[in-house]
Design a protein that fits this description.
The protein is of the alpha/beta class. The protein has three domains: 2-120, Nucleotidyltransferase, domain 5, CATH 3.30.420.10; 130-197; 216-321, no CATH class. It is 55% helix and 13% strand. The chain is built from twelve helices and nine strands. It has helices at 39-51, 71-79, 89-98, 106-120, 130-160, 167-197, 199-209, 216-225, 235-242, 266-279, 285-295, 300-321; strands at residues 2-8, 12-19, 27-36, 59-64, 83-87, 246-247, 250-251, 254-255, 259-260. The radius of gyration is 24 Å and the shape is globular.
């Protein structure tokens, strides 16, 4: 059994190989390996692993989710039969603190990541399906288009209100706005077409749309931002991933204010918050839940966060059960069971 710690950079990979002779013990092998983060470098890394007697299912590769630069090497090693784990960089940071690690270099980081894998046994990563990857890319591109459109609208407003506005500059700005509007229509069409061509995507979007406050685009966003969370068994895990889990502050006689962690996927958290804004205005169970909280003296934002977490839990249940949202459903009493 081997554990490979991989420190991923934009242009280079630093690897550290550990052998696990028995549970709870590990032995560093050699001095590590540095290769370029390219297809050629990935092949060199595989050749080095084989030369060291590692590789295949008996080798667990642990790396941080460094932007997008980990994806290609993860796929290469996965296709070579290795067991891949992609972990949050915060986990490695706090693990380093627990070992009183002081120095920081790429080689030290690779060694630290390998030791983390040998001690903590992180969850296995599986590559997402191709249609989800494509849908995620399209939705991220849509977010960029919307953001740029907002920027250009602000620029146009500012230029139009100058004492002596330039018609030429305004023309350039309007041309950019027209291009962005055209691209927004195109990306919306692409997203809808992709959902319609995939039976599984269409089924999951239909399930999520049955929940009040969640529309087609939001449903697609929820699917792509949670595409690697299918193995989770509890909605609390989803809430933690979205940064919507509560963080209590209490020590001795001191009790501070509880707030959400905000450690997690900001896109997912924002999506559920916006869904909560919509659902809070409705005359149904979700709207009544929000109004009940505010009537009890809860601040509006606190009530919205609570509603966002409730919507997340309902979305998790709907996808796990494969059944549309039923407002009349009541969880069976433990006494009745």
């Amino acid at each position: 059994m081997f554990v490979l710690g991989l420190d991923v950079g934009k242009s280079e990979l630093y690897a550290r190989l550990l052998q696990i002779p028995e549970p709870g013990k590990f032995v560093p092998l050699g001095t590590g390996k540095s290769v370029s983060n390219t297809a050629k470098g990935h092949e060199q890394l595989l050749a080095w692993l084989r030369k060291s007697g590692a590789g295949g299912e008996g080798t667990s590769v642990v790396m941080e989710s460094t932007s997008v630069y980990w994806e290609r090497v993860a796929m290469t090693l996965y296709e070579a039969g290795c067991r891949i784990s992609v972990v949050n960089a915060a986990q490695i940071k706090f693990f380093a603190k627990s070992t009183l690690r002081r120095g920081k270099t790429d080689k030290l980081d690779a060694d630290l990541i390998g030791r983390f894998g040998a001690v903590m046994h992180p969850a296995r990563w599986m590559p997402p399906e191709a249609d989800l990857v494509e849908l995620r890319a399209l939705l991220h591109a849509r977010d960029n288009i919307v953001e740029l459109s907002t920027v250009e609208a602000g620029r146009h407003h500012a230029m139009d209100h100058r004492y002596q506005p330039s018609s030429k500059a305004l023309g350039f700005c309007e041309a950019r706005q027209a291009l962005l509007a055209q691209q927004l229509v195109e990306v919306n069409d692409k997203v809808n077409a992709l959902v319609l061509t995939s039976v599984r995507l269409q089924t999951d979007v239909t399930l999520l749309r049955s929940i009040p406050g969640i529309g087609s685009l939001t449903a697609a966003l929820l699917l792509v931002e949670t595409m690697h969370l299918s193995e989770m068994e509890s909605s609390n895990q989803w809430a933690a991933y979205a940064g919507l889990s509560p963080v209590p502050r209490q020590s001795g006689n001191f009790t501070g204010r509880t707030h959400i962690s905000k450690i997690g996927n900001a896109r997912l958290r924002r999506a559920f918050y916006l869904c909560a804004l919509t659902a809070s205005r409705m005359k149904n169970g979700f709207g009544n839940f929000y109004r009940h909280l505010t009537s009890q003296g809860k601040p509006k934002k606190v009530a919205l966060i609570a509603l966002a977490r409730k919507l997340l839990r309902v979305a998790f249940a709907v996808l796990k059960s494969g059944q549309k949202f039923n407002p009349d459903y009541r969880r069976p009493s433990p006494m009745a069971a």
